[in-house]
């Protein structure tokens, strides 16, 4: 079985996908799809140091566990709903459409003492989600000064913060947090920063590197090598800063070294067979920590523009007409170039190439004359059609439709990918693919999500993907979609104990119609958080049989342990399927 988790966690793949989504968002027409439904509400109590807390703002935002919804929220600030607590600390959010929401108090200087309620909750149609309570207390503060190698203040420098508690970090890790970062801080005109509203515990403080994806994409300032308090470019040498409730940890200063601008890594992209330069190739790399060293992933996109999107943990750039690329501010260390076939941002062509891996070492000087060799990959072409019970659905109901190919090399367990935009007539072509077993996944940012019904090759249904050989051009592929409108509603009852702080309760649905070796649906909504009252809703499913599993992972010093419960259910488009699961915490736990 290929290590799909490694593919999902690859920051380059996620960042490149974000760029694609941003392009599609600006080009996609607004969907006319809407559903009439009864609205619900969310209620709860807020206390500060054990007493009712009046005047606290409570905000509910549609869940961003789905990558598409995360991007949609970037363009739709009105999606959030808010209210304030009354004199008794009681709040009630009215007019909430059915769905999953992140509910949290907006009190920057305060922290919530109950991590189980601060998170995603589910609102059923016309129902009330009760007991979403918050216990607040004063947060801690970290403050310090950022200076350059000559002791001058660095103005507007972003400061990054993350928990040094492995159990806490594991409990709070989520797609949105990994993608966009939890908070953003910057120095003032004196080079001073002040981070407040922190939960007690140890923290790692750093500056430079622009490790946050979104701030990096939007940043135009020169980059500096990421430096950790106290003045280390290696995170393993960072000194954790201990924060206690209501206290201030001062003097957490960082000074960039004389090589704070890092080193330049440059080279060119060439055709592996002809040796000719590849112009207008988009090159991207991101920094991913692995044992024993550090790794950088690079994606090659052969239809990119000429502009450079700086600020990622490495950044984006495009090759010039000589196939040359250049990255600045690369810290000393061991690096490895990897590739992701990205596909075109417009049209149906897709990328035509994939690149060989390339390793290099940055020590105390610039690295130049690197050569990334690309190969013309295999291709898949065909048509996408829609089947539905009323035959009223067409491709345009899904807005801008995209296809992604996930390719697993079963011999090496390596995973690669490619994507393309589906044409208005349903035609598509995925190019630049490596050899292996291919699984196709549809994706759209429209409220009406496409569900994969089946795939046919030359009129014969294929299950569990299909093989593609090196340089092969596969034709006659027919991707049949149906509106993913099915819903599973569930209720979880806990017995044999109580959830501990830091526990993460999750529900997921796995299609029983898929082959055991099939690649998980990276963009689907098959996994959701369970709300504090035990309710969950899994949406955007296609008709069929599913195994619904609820599981809890409790972090600990020796690793995470968990328990789970499962139930099989058949879903149809007529009405939501209902499941009731009993999670026994008193039974034998399983290692996760």
What topology does this entry show?
Layout: H1 4-9, H2 11-27, E1 40-48, E2 51-52, E3 57-62, H3 67-74, E4 81-84, E5 90-96, E6 99-106, E7 110-112, E8 119-123, E9 128-129, E10 134-138, E11 140-147, E12 158-163, H4 166-172, H5 175-180, E13 185-186, E14 192-198, E15 201-207, H6 213-218, E16 227-228, E17 241-243, E18 248-249, E19 254-255, E20 263-271, E21 282-289, E22 294-301, E23 315-318, E24 324-330, E25 333-337, E26 353-355, E27 358-362, E28 367-376, E29 378-386, E30 401-409, E31 414-421, E32 427-433, E33 436-444, E34 450-457, E35 460-462, E36 466-468, E37 473-483, E38 486-495, E39 504-511, E40 527-529, E41 535-541, E42 544-554, E43 561-571, E44 577-584, E45 590-591
Parallel strand pairs: 1-9, 1-10, 11-18, 11-19, 20-28, 29-37, 38-44
Antiparallel strand pairs: 1-2, 1-5, 3-4, 3-6, 6-8, 7-10, 11-14, 12-13, 12-15, 15-16, 15-17, 20-24, 21-22, 21-23, 25-27, 26-28, 29-32, 30-31, 30-33, 33-36, 34-35, 34-37, 38-41, 39-40, 39-42, 42-43, 43-45
Helix pairs in contact: 2-3
């Amino acid at each position: 079985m290929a290590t799909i988790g490694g593919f999902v966690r690859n920051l380059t793949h996620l960042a490149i996908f974000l760029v694609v989504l941003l392009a599609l968002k600006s080009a996609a027409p607004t969907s006319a799809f809407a559903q009439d439904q009864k609205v619900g509400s969310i209620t709860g109590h807020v206390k500060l140091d054990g007493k009712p807390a009046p005047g606290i703002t409570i905000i509910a935002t549609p869940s961003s566990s789905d990558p598409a919804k995360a991007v949609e929220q970037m363009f739709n600030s009105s999606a959030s709903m808010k209210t304030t607590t009354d004199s008794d600390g009681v709040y009630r959010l009215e007019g909430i459409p059915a769905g999953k929401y992140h509910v949290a108090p907006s009190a920057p200087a305060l922290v919530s003492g109950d991590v189980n309620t601060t998170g995603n909750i589910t609102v059923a149609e016309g129902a009330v989600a009760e007991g979403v309570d918050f216990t607040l207390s004063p947060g801690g503060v970290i403050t310090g000064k950022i200076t350059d190698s000559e002791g001058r203040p660095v103005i507007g420098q972003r400061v990054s913060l993350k928990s040094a508690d492995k159990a806490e970090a594991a409990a709070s890790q989520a797609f949105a947090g990994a993608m966009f970062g939890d908070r953003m801080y910057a120095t003032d005109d004196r080079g001073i920063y002040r981070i407040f509203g922190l939960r007690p515990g140890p923290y790692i403080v750093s500056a430079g590197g622009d490790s946050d994806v979104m701030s990096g994409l939007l940043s135009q300032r020169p980059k500096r090598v990421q430096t950790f308090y106290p003045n280390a470019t290696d995170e393993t040498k960072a000194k954790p800063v201990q924060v206690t409730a209501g206290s201030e940890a001062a003097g957490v200063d960082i000074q960039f070294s004389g090589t704070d601008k890092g080193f330049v890594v440059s080279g060119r992209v060439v055709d592996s067979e002809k040796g000719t330069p590849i112009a207008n190739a988009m090159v991207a790399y991101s920094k991913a920590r692995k044992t024993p060293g550090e790794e950088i992933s690079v994606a090659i996109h052969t239809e990119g523009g000429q502009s450079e999107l700086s600020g990622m943990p490495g950044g984006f750039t495009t090759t010039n007409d000589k196939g040359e690329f250049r990255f600045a501010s690369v810290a000393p260390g061991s690096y490895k170039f990897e590739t992701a076939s990205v596909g075109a941002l417009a049209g149906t062509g897709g990328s035509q190439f994939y690149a060989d891996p390339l390793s290099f070492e940055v020590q105390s000087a610039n690295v130049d004359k690197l050569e990334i060799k690309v190969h013309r990959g295999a291709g898949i072409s065909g048509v996408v059609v829609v089947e539905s019970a009323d035959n009223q659905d067409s491709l345009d109901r899904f807005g801008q439709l995209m296809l992604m190919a996930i390719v697993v090399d079963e011999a090496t367990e390596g995973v690669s990918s490619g994507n393309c935009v589906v044409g208005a007539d349903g035609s598509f072509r995925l190019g630049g693919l490596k050899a292996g077993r291919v699984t196709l996944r549809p994706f759209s940012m429209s409220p009406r999500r496409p569900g994969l019904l089946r795939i046919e090759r030359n009129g014969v249904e294929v299950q569990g993907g299909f093989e593609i050989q090196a340089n092969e051009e596969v034709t006659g592929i027919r991707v049949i979609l149906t509106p993913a409108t099915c819903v599973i509603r569930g209720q979880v009852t806990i017995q044999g104990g109580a959830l501990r702080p830091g526990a993460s309760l999750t529900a997921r649905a796995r299609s029983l119609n898929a082959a055991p070796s099939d690649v998980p649906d990276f963009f689907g909504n098959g996994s959701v958080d369970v709300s504090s009252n035990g309710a969950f809703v899994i949406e955007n499913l296609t008709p069929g049989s599913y195994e619904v599993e609820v599981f809890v992972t409790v972090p600990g010093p020796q690793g995470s342990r968990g328990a789970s419960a499962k139930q099989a259910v058949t879903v149809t488009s007529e009405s939501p399927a209902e499941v009731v699961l009993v999670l026994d915490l008193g039974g034998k736990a399983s290692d996760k």
